[in-house]
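Hi R.,

Here's the chain you asked about this morning:
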Amino acid sequence: MPRPLNSTDNFETIKNWLDGTLTDTNSFTPNRDSIHQVLSKGIYFWFMKPAGYHIFSNYLPIQALAAKYSRVINGEQFDLVYLGTAGVRDTGKGDNKGHLLERFEWHILNYQNQNHVCSGIMSTFRRTLIPLFSEDLILNNAQSELNTIFSKYFKLYYLPYPGSFIEVKDLVNKDESFLINVIKPIFNLKLNQNAKTLGHITFQIKKRRNEIEKVTKTRLACKK
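And the predicted structure, written out as tokens:
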């Protein structure tokens, strides 16, 4: 397990931390045939080829951030654009039996139809990305198109934190907070100061997501 991050960490020390902890062994192309069966809790990291920015620029000028974490994967540069945690959120029951595999499936396989739009359980990452190339979350095969984009432009890394919910929850949540606070991945909307900064591209992405989610829910006549 890597050393815990803390408030003294900066972009350079976190870059070194990521360089030393993320391994190609713990990575896969995000499609249904490649998902790793990881039952540990932990943090996962979505990397995207720079060519992917163009794909998401139908409605906003999506470009790489000036300060970003990148790595070379199989000879190609990929940028870290989103990260999240698995199995450590407070459920109000004193435990969380979730794990990385469950989170992988949530983003890649599950919760993609109108019932999931209305209930709000569709993947947060999918709800953020689809509005960047579509006017609706599910019309015109938007979900299938995103699956294709994932397979072509993305790589998913993960960092397991072995242990029970009680043993690792604080460490994982703190590490996520420091990572987002310093790296500020472009598609992370929670815990990201850029999402609150008027005019910043992440702020605009959040605004676009909220607009298209509202349009889709209105079309589907979702009950509040």
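The chain has a mean pLDDT of 94.

Let me know if you need anything else.
M.
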